[in-house]
Model the fold of this input.
Amino acid sequence: MTTVLDSFSRPAFSSEDAAWWRQAVVYQVYPRSFADADGDGLGDIPGITSRVPYLAGLGVDAVWLSPFYPSALADGGYDVADYRDVDPRLGTLEDFDAMVAALHAAGIRVVVDIVPNHTSDLHAWFQEALAAGRGSAARDRFIFREGTGPDGSEPPTDWVSTFGGSAWERVADGQWYLHNFAVEQPDLNWANPEVREDFLTTLRFWSDRGVDGFRIDVAHMLTKDLTEPLPSQAELDSLPRDGRHPMIDRDDVHEVYAEWRQVFDSYDPPRTAVAEAWVDPSRVPLYASAESLGQAFNFDLLEADFDADQFHRIVTANLALAASSGSSTTWVLSNHDVVRHATRYGLARPARGADGRPALKHGNEWLLSGGRQSDVDRVGGLRRARAATLFVLGLPGSAYLYQGEELGLHEVGDIADEDRQDPTFFRSPGVDLGRDGCRVPLPWTREGSSFGFGAAGAHLPQPEWFAAASVQDEEADPASTLTLYRRALALRHELQGPEALTWVDTGRADVLRFERPNGWSVVTNFGTEPYALEGEVVLASADAAPGMVPGESTAWLVAPSA
Done:
């Protein structure tokens, strides 16, 4: 097949750039909510291409695309019906090739999501499995079991889906299939060689089209030991996650990733990968090693308060984990699964368990109470978010930004029930409202039916206050969050040196300071009282008198010779 790919020269990225990912700034695009080129209310691939100048002006090193594959959107695109195509509502493979070419021409690499734990129930393999019946080779690609009870009408176990309800669904002939997520997302059987080979084909397919790297969804859940008798949910919950758990973070998953690594390393430069692995910290280096995926997400800051002690402990621990694997760490404050950090920092701090983690997902209580903006300290939340961002962008390692955070966007919490789309909302009534609030389409202009997102409306409702947070509004404001991000990313490229950090005593428990090579220092005041310092401030998250870092703000300093 001849594609647009053939008419573009390959990007000028070479093996000399193989370590580009170690300290990259990666911008996450949720395609359906980024930009709508055809005016149908849904973001698309040509919409992303149209905004390449914006991304280049922002100064990011790479774009990570959440799933854009054919999907019924039972889980925002993470229910994939075809791993080697583009959802026709979002464009074509030719559109994808043109987007990659445009991004590469702007010096921006491309990372795509791979969802290997499960497919969509509309995937050709699953439809074949339904038709083929018990004992077929087609069913062996998934996880089918007989039910329990006299007539098999009860599920094989009492396992609970991540999205609520049973993790098993019965099909017409009486068997049940496993779905750890939505009912429309049947789990694949990774003991099946055909499954393994097909994903190697998928990795080559996108790598051949110029994709530079892959983000691996729920990387810790692929392989499973489903030897009968199957344990109960209580037994699963009580088992240690030490590599031998039947369902989660098994040692044998790295046999899969060793095969993937061979594919990645067959390209010049090698393709990269980053694992979404919700595992014990001691297990993270297994995913981040050079023999496995090469890098793993660090989600600790997603659960942290704006607090000096928590930030210090998280940074110290994760730099040590990265060093033990030979990788670099990753820093994330917002993504498509959590309440935006400008809002989190404007809410009361959540209660924490004995392990220091929030008892509930931060922001969940606010959402359940109605998600009113009047209940958020919007000014304080944004002030802390800007300070946290400059802190993170000063650290060694990769920084992952989520679309809209550069505008200081708050979570849209008060979406009407009839407008919600996230399956979590429908499967967990009264318990979890889901993730729609961080997936509301971006505002590009002050006016228009969708604030410049597209020619018509948007697939999720946008609030009126989006106008003041639009790109058009912030581009004209030298004090805007967008301006701050642009300056920060430009300076980061100038100042970035070896992956090293030295903590400096500040004399205050609520003020953190660290030094980077090249005479670069970062000072974050987590308290409310100003902090006096010496040095040349080249960037600050808030206005300050000379020689002072205001409360809840960050300053970047350089030595006179730098």
